[in-house]
Design goal:
Blueprint lengths: L13 H12 L9 H14 L10 E7 L14 H12 L3 H8 L3 E8 L17 E3 L20 H17 L4 E7 L3 H13 L3 H4 L8 H17 L6 H8 L2 H15 L3 E4 L2 H13 L7 E3 L6 H10 L15 H19 L3 H4 L13
Parallel strand pairs: 1-2, 1-4, 2-3, 4-5, 5-6
Helix pairs in contact: 1-2, 2-13, 4-13, 5-9, 5-10, 6-8, 6-9, 6-11, 10-11, 11-12
Length: about 350
C-alpha cells in the first residue's frame, strides 16, 4: 500500500517562547526555582501553542503484538503472556490500568498482531470496550522470525504505520501516552537501537522480562545473528520492517500523526522510545512534540535517550513497560500546566520582585 507519513513542520516560535519564559520567570518564586517543571511548562506551551495550556482527554494507547523471534529463546516468558496481559489490561488489573484510572487517563488497547482472537465467540461485527483490533494482513499472529527472514514485509510495515495514524485520528484530546505489550519486544527494540545508532548489540541488550546473565549473553548472540542476516538494511523504514515489531511500527505511525496534530506525546520506556528512535530517523522534528516520562532500568534505554539528546522526567528504576511510566509521570505535566495558568505573578500578588534580577534562569 502507499502510506504517506505526515510531514512535520518546525513548531518553534521565538516570540511564543519569549512570552512563555517571561510568564514563568515572573511567577511568585525565585528565578528557576521550580527546576525542570519550568522546562516542562515551556515545552507543553510550545507544543500546544499557548501560554495557558490545558491538557484535555489524555489517551493511553497500549500497542500489543507477538514476535516470531521468541522461538529462539530470547525471553524469560512464553509468548502466550502477550494475549494474557492484554486480557489483564482490559479487565483493569495491570499496572497501566490502575495508574491510568488513578490519573483520569483513557486506556485504549490495540491488537496490532497478537497471536490470539480476542473477539472469538462474539457475534460478527461485535467489539469489546477498550479494545481496537488492527491486525495486518499476513501477520495476524505477529512478526516472522527475524533471524530467518524479515520480521515484516514492507507492505505489512506500511499497513501498521497507517493503522497507527488512523488510531490517533479517531481519538479525542490533545495528549497521547505510549504503551506497549509483546513478549520479545525488548529484542526488537535492542535491534533497532543497534542498527540506527551503530552501537554494538552487546551494549544494547538487557534482561528484558528477567533473564539471568548467561541468558542475556545468549540473547545478544541471537540478536547478533539477526543483525548479520540483515546487514545491508539501513534505511529507517526498511530497518523497522526487517527487525522491528508490529506494535512498534503501529506506534511509529501513531507518533507521527500525533506530532502532526500537535498533541503532546508522552513516551514511556525502552520499547516506546524505540518507536521515537525510528520516527526521529524519519523526521527529527518529532522530538519537539515529545515528553520522555522516565529513564528505564533496561540498559539500552539510557543510550536511546543519549542518542536523541533528551532527558527523562523520572528515574525510578522502572522496566515494566505497558505505558506505566507515562501514567506515573502524567501528574507532573498537569502540575506544569497548572503552574502556568494559575500561579500568581509578582504583580498580581503584590509581592516585591527580586532586586538585580538576572535575565535567564539560574
Amino acid at each position: 500500500m502507499n502510506t504517506t507519513l505526515p510531514v512535520l513542520t518546525d513548531i518553534s516560535s521565538p516570540a511564543l517562547t519569549t512570552t512563555l519564559q517571561a510568564k514563568i520567570n515572573n511567577k511568585t518564586k525565585p528565578l528557576g526555582s521550580l527546576g525542570r517543571i519550568e522546562d516542562l511548562a515551556l515545552k507543553i506551551g510550545q507544543i500546544l501553542d499557548t501560554t495557558d495550556p490545558v491538557l484535555t482527554e489524555p489517551q493511553m494507547v497500549v500497542f500489543a503484538a507477538d514476535h516470531g523471534l521468541v522461538a529462539r529463546g530470547v525471553s524469560a516468558f512464553p509468548k502466550e503472556v502477550s494475549w494474557q496481559m492484554v486480557e489483564n489490561f482490559l479487565a483493569g488489573g495491570a499496572a497501566v490500568s490502575v495508574f491510568s484510572k488513578q490519573n483520569g487517563i483513557a486506556l485504549n488497547v490495540v491488537d496490532c498482531g497478537v497471536d490470539h482472537d480476542f473477539l472469538a465467540g462474539l457475534p460478527s461485527g461485535a467489539q469489546r470496550p477498550g479494545l481496537m483490533v488492527r491486525k495486518v494482513a499476513g501477520a495476524e499472529g505477529g512478526t516472522a522470525d527475524a533471524s530467518v527472514q524479515p520480521a515484516m514485509t514492507i507492505a505489512q510495515c506500511k499497513q501498521a504505520l497507517q493503522n497507527g495514524m488512523d488510531i490517533v485520528k479517531s481519538l479525542p484530546g490533545n495528549a497521547v501516552l505510549l504503551g506497549e505489550m509483546g513478549i520479545g519486544n525488548t529484542s526488537a527494540a535492542s535491534l533497532l537501537l543497534a542498527r540506527l545508532t551503530g552501537l554494538d548489540i552487546d551494549v544494547c541488550t538487557g534482561a528484558g522480562t528477567g533473564l539471568d546473565a548467561p541468558a542475556v549473553q545468549r540473547k545478544a548472540a541471537v540478536l547478533r545473528e539477526v543483525l548479520t542476516r540483515h546487514a545491508g538494511v539501513t534505511e529507517p523504514l526498511e530497518v523497522l520492517a526487517a527487525i522491528g515489531g508490529l506494535e512498534i511500527a503501529t506506534m511509529v505511525g501513531a507518533v507521527m500523526q500525533a506530532a502532526h496534530e500537535r498533541r503532546v506525546v508522552v513516551v514511556d520506556g525502552f520499547i516506546a522510545t524505540s518507536s521515537i528512535l525510528v520516527a526521529h530517523a524519519l523526521q527529527p522534528l518529532v522530538l519537539q512534540r515529545c515528553v520522555f516520562a522516565h529513564r528505564s532500568g533496561e540498559r539500552g534505554h539510557e543510550f536511546m535517550l543519549q542518542h536523541l539528546g533528551v532527558q527523562a522526567l523520572l528515574n525510578l528504576g522502572l522496566r515494566l513497560g505497558e505505558g506505566s511510566g507515562g501514567a506515573l509521570a502524567w501528574p507532573l505535566l498537569q502540575s506544569a500546566c497548572t503552574m502556568l495558568r494559575e500561579m500568581a505573578s509578582f504583580a498580581s500578588a503584590g509581592v516585591a520582585e527580586q532586586e538585580n534580577k538576572p535575565t535567564a534562569n539560574v
